[in-house]
Amino acid sequence: MQTTADIRSFFLEYFQNRGHCVVPSSSLIPHNDPTLLFTAAGMVQFKNVFTDQETLPFTRAASAQKCVRAGGKHNDLENVGHTARHHTFFEMLGNFSFGDYFKEEAIELAWTLLTKEWGISPEKLVITVYIEDEEAATLWRKVAGLSDEKIIRIANKAENFWSMGDVGPCGPCTEIFYDHGPQIPGGLPGTPEAEGDRFVEIWNLVFMQYEQVGLDEIITLPKPSVDTGMGLERIAAVLQGVHDNFDTDIFKALIEASEEITKTRAVGTERDSHRVIADHLRSSCFLMADGVLPSNEGRGYVLRRIMRRAMRHVQLLGYKGALMAKLVPTLVDKMGRAYPELVRATPLMMETLTLEESRFRQTLDKGLRLLSEESEKVKEQLPGDVAFKLYDTYGFPLDLTQDVLRTEGKSVEMAGFHQAMERQKAEARAAWAGSGDSKTDRIWFDLREQLQATEFLGYKTTVAEGVIAGLLIEGHSVSEVRMGERVALLVNQTPFYGESGGQVGDTGVISSPTGKMIVEDTQRKLGDLIVHFGRVTQGEFKVGETVHLSVDGERRTLLRANHSATHLLHKALRKYLGEQVIQKGSLVAPDRLRFDFSYPKGLTTEEIEIIAQEVNYQIRHNTPVSVHLTTPEEASKGGALALFGEKYGEEVRVVSMGEETQKPFSVELCGGTHVDCTGDIGYFKIISESGIAAGIRRIEALTGWKAEEFAASQQRLVTKIAEQLKVSPLTVVEKMAQLLEERKSLERDVQSLRQQLATSGGKSAQKPEMVKGIALYKRHLKDIPPQDLKPIVDELKAEYKSGIFAVVSEVEGKVSLVIGVSPDWLSTFNAVDLIRAVVSCVGGKGGGGRPDLAQAGGAKPEGVEDLFKELALYISQKKK
Predict the structure, then answer these.
(1) pTM over 0.70
(2) Average pLDDT of 310-333?
(3) Considering only the top CATH level, what class is 758-878?
(4) What secondary structure letter does DSSP report for 842?
(5) CATH code of the domain occupying 4-242
(6) How many CA atoms lie within 13 A of 431 on its CB side?
(7) DSSP string, 651-677
């Protein structure tokens, strides 16, 4: 039997042998494409090639692309587990032609692979073509010898005509379907029964021969292209002789492991649960390996939805442990060779899944109880606002609520849910103060079309001459600027570094015989335009003039040190915490550095110390920092670390520094400025470590003299504390621990004395007021903290056994009140009712607690005596 790995490898080799460049899968996080939540097709990484915004050194490509469809317009989440072919994560095999071959060769390549190389019987294959694409139908008859009965013409554009959007490349599709046999329900494509699983689409060939240029205008492209996609899981089912994707080797291994751990069988209703768990484990792990971590927004929220849907099915199986984390080794064993990022991220995946399962179990019971209570009130539809409350308060994704209701034959009233969601969004928008200027953004696109890319000279110098290529005031291009105006200035070449890669932009001075400009910031726009922002302080500047550009050298030196220290910190984190550490963001400023990274828990003091020690060791070692240019492929082979989600060109800059076992300690792809030797950093000091989001940690640090000054200030603080304590600075910690323990002991003594005072030390000390045979014990205390009142009431109840107990304390004009009811009077009195009946006497409202113990507060101490009188009156009226 061919394994899924065999099929993947054979596909890529087949096309490589036919002149195609095998391109690695891109990240599941689309690069610079805000229209997509996740990569959902093989063509995504080639989108700019198809739209002529990017050129590649090859015209034929093949790939096995990781894809997720669980959010946005591509969403198969609700179908997963209930069908044989839907998945949240899948692999798309594809071959692509960028103005090279077209329909005939694409059809021939596909047909040869399927029928001759893989030996699939032509009798099992059915073809669809767009009804207007007679050329494709003719080629299928010519290449494959198919009869007209085997070629189904589809008139529905949504099915057999592909477009990238309202404008852009588009064209007809031809799809290849496999017939799993009459024993499987389902009908031919284009028929009402087409949604069954008998005829399954295994390959889609898209012929991009047109361009949509307007609402009703389509033109023919001079160089048409081909984009194909074949689901690996679907073709694996065909070649492994099964009709169900979940019976293929990878899913089979995961489901068998799930059965073994849970001691349940994948049959009946439990079959769907095992399938959901296996599928969702794959998407969860691949997303985490590509840098997504569970959170409450964006991609992280989709990941959490996927995880929680799987965890709900773990609960349905009756398993109480962290099942998904235990399945990770099986997944890595089956897919880690093809996707080494899974191997690197294994510790992160297991720890995150364990943590998420623990969190979900804590909220699941509460949410299910509420859902059960609300579901009992309705016959068919759960109100949308209730479903939203489950989502917003208990972290229940909508699809999880729908899953639970589906088992009861019920649904969610979606209009109400969306209304509640929109209300929350509107409130969030109202609370957010921010705006964007799309007109200003547009100007950069226009300038990029007019100007050449700015040449950056700053790696070797901080001063240079340049020619003014563009001037802007408030987003508008101008030909000249004068003193006092705030401007954006572009030159043909510059030593100024434009903010990117976390490093802030340079500042400095631009001057000419006729003018002077203070540069306050430098930014990169659209990747290759470097723009200087600042104020003209003397004279004027005109487009076409030659100017002198001078970077603030001292500030640049600080930036170089902090950027190099960031690289050393990144490597030290991965060395001591594991390669699952992924950079999530950074700030390289002249006065500090900040590094955000994925890690599921806070660092210990010992971990922070050893990481800082490693960085300082590399600094003391004073090794040269080397930079060389190479291809992304060669850089990857050499172990260079690339940033997740970053897209690199044909040539990349590799920065190496430090030393470890005869090789560089840190090797990263980076376009920033760096020190010449690690010793130039001087000294490194971590000043804080904190969490900024679920699974995201942040380290802030200083270098050089700023780090030394911070360390000195800490030492001065320790010395002052030691002087106050009259001990040596070396024994400050021990002395502080001793004082804290003494304080705790004294606080315990004080609390005990307060309680003794409050309870008056014995039964005869204070007699109760008798109200219709009920003992009312009253205490009016001064300066007793509110948190001490409940223990006092408990002491009174324990000592006097029967009655109602009211304890009031005044602290700085505030009144705290606790009322307790002994067990023998609970059938008559409720402490919450008692406290709400009298708290207004001291200026309070409400109150809450249990039937036997309640508390409230107010700000009117002069009303305490009235409160006691009102309480006695209420008891008298209540006691019949």
Answers:
(1) no
(2) 92
(3) alpha beta
(4) G
(5) 3.30.930.10
(6) 6
(7) SEEEEEES-BTTB-SEEEE--S---SB
